[in-house]
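FORM 7B - TANDEM STRUCTURE REPORT

SECTION 1: FIRST PROTEIN
SEQUENCE AND TOKENS:
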Amino acid sequence: MKKSKKVLLIVLIILAVLILPGLYCGLGIKHYTIEDNRFKEGIRIALVTDLHSCRYGKDQKRLLEALYEQKPDVVLLGGDIYDDERPDDNTDKFLAGIVDKYPCYYVTGNHECWCSAEEHKAKMDKIEAYGIKRLRGEAQILTVGTQQIKICGVDDPDLFMVRTAYSDDEYSTFLQQMTELKKETEDDTFTLLLSHRPELYEDYQRYGFDLILSGHAHGGQWRIPGILNGLFAPDQGLFPKRAGGMYDDLETPMIVSRGLARESTVVPRLYNPPELVIIDLTAPQ
């Protein structure tokens, strides 16, 4: 074998050794803990984002069993649970598997807003039929034991491209929804914001929330753990600042899920497996 061919073969082997493990797309569980003196009893949150109607085994068994094992008190659906191109079946099976077990809250993502007005409305009608509470510039009190938190949520800004799906009294802008939520942060109840887009974090900081939960960035798609936390993310571009993880360098801490999308993405994930996020709200240890 010629020297040049040997070098090429060695290079290809090295690339395979480096790249192939990074293409693993099995489901991971990512845990975060938020400590606050207001908590006398803990609350466990499951944050599910960017499912895009991807498949996790027959009838979504792998995803559902992973969720059940974590024993959350509430499930927060942070947008792009449905997709604008893929069939709804996998999402419907997942939602059917959680609605009778946990209180569930939902906000829209951009892909759910990229459907036609009729398709979008059909998906939102299903959310309502499942008994999932959709948050549109409003807050809900969640009580677990004797502990209470406020869960606030806003529609994705792209919703307002599909106005024809709504009557005038249902239609409001993203900033109007955020402004409406400002009053929810004025008492001492721990208050979190569920909003699909992490790139708007500077806007979120102005409203006085205690925690922000987002998705959308898909973990920056390609990662080099410990070196590069995401190569490219929607609406953040190259080397995104908030691709996935917990960001406690902000005035209000923010957790960004890397999401559950896999076969729906054109570019495969690299060292960035899909994740189910579990957040424990608890008293300081």
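SECTION 2: SECOND PROTEIN
SEQUENCE AND TOKENS:
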Amino acid sequence: MRWNWLRSAMVLVVSVSVGTTAWADLSIYEVQHNTTDGDASVYNGQIQSVLGGIVTHTWHGFQDRIYLQDPNQADGWGAIVVKDSTPTRELYSSVSVGDWVTLSEVYVEEYRGTTFLQYKTVTDGGGNVLNPNLGFEVTSVGNPVPASVVLTAAELVVPVDHAASEPWESVIVTLEDVVIGQKDLGKAADNYQLLQGSDVAWGTDYLNLEAGGLYHPYIQTGVHLESITGIVEQYTKLSDGWDYYQVMTRCTADIVVPEPGTLALVAVGLVVLRRSRRATA
């Protein structure tokens, strides 16, 4: 199935040198791995067609997002996030987790350290549409979500080591054997420390609709987690003092508490969801 429309609203006005050359079909790896400074894609500010990947998560907000990951790139640089700002949210509303989605004539944007694909009409200063073939195709459905990549906190450490962390941007990762440290950190005061020995990474639950609030009930300072899984996002705004990567949980299953810890949390009335799911499995 394929969708292709011109839009009359929510357009992005940019200065792009178009010429007559057709856009190339790039892999996610090519968009992400080719960088100018270790972070920014060399395709920043360009219109490109992208071969895409499997939808690993969708998020509804001011700019709806879908997260794509190529299972053939397990060594990094294999995932990217797409913003859908079209009036009808046609991309977001038409795809599901497990779909393989390809994209034509999307705008590559660097924003706060993260490489985005903007799914919207792009015009020049004169109102001319620069990406008339904007569209997407669901080439297959029901694909398994790629397995998470097990990392250490040192690979997502705060303060950041960009060379170590950047390959994992938008990738599903797992940190094992961590302790929840300080909370109320970061730009939105919704980050928490993931302590692994002397190394410190950050997590957040803002993508997690099962959290029920700023933090999932499992996230309590001092709690030991068997593992935590999520999608990596970079947030950089040096003028405000922010430069970090964060592991964004997607659901309750992404946060695994060892059995004794789970029982203790249940005893104080903090968590019942995961235990009840096991009981009914």
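SECTION 3: OBSERVATIONS ON SECOND PROTEIN
Residues 22-140 form a domain with the OB fold (Dihydrolipoamide Acetyltransferase, E2P) fold (CATH 2.40.50.140).
The longest helix spans residues 259-267.

SECTION 4: SIGNATURE
Preparer initials: ____
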